[in-house]
Amino acid sequence: MQVTNLPKQVESVLIAEEQIQKRVSVLADEINQDFADTSGLLIVGVLKGAFMFLADLTRQIRVPHAVDFVALSSYATGTDSGGVVRMIMDTRLPMTGRDVIIVEDILDTGYTLDYLIRTFKARQPNSVSTAVLLHKPERTEVENPVDYLGFSIPNAWVVGYGLDYNDMCRTLPYIAVLKPEMYQ
Ligand code: PRP
Question: Best exposed site among 70, 108, 121, 182 by fewest CB in 10 Å?
């Protein structure tokens, strides 16, 4: 479906709503198969960006599961965003013996996911897997295992479907490229 009336900050649609929903269904099917026999699936969303992906994904996961969230902040160590990641809000449910799936909206430098995988693995879960909607390979500095990937995208500032620009445009149902003049 052609999107008309794009927000003024947005240049073009990169991934349409229908494409996202199709891909999310495929990922949910894979998770349903891979975890069919588990009795302790725990799905952890990374706030804020993952809220929409997590909501759509979990509604198609038929394996009984619990949901939890973390909130993080990352501090710039130089001219870029990568570097020190700090937990602002931790999960509330125990992870011991559970199969944990971390749900992220975007894998950029990789520092956030690396921190989360290391932190969660120290909590004696049965397994830690990752579901990432978007990956920017050109930006990645730290390699992370991605078990369920939505789309690889070019190095552009994208908004929508959870992703923001100054906390705006998060609730667009599609992924769009921000106009360069917004941040240049
Ligand atoms: C974004 C995104 C990931 C992280 C990825 O969060 O949601 O959590 O950055 O970046 P990295 O791979 O370079 O570590 P952001 O800090 O923008 O917070 P938000 O989700 O609350 O908008």
Answer: 121
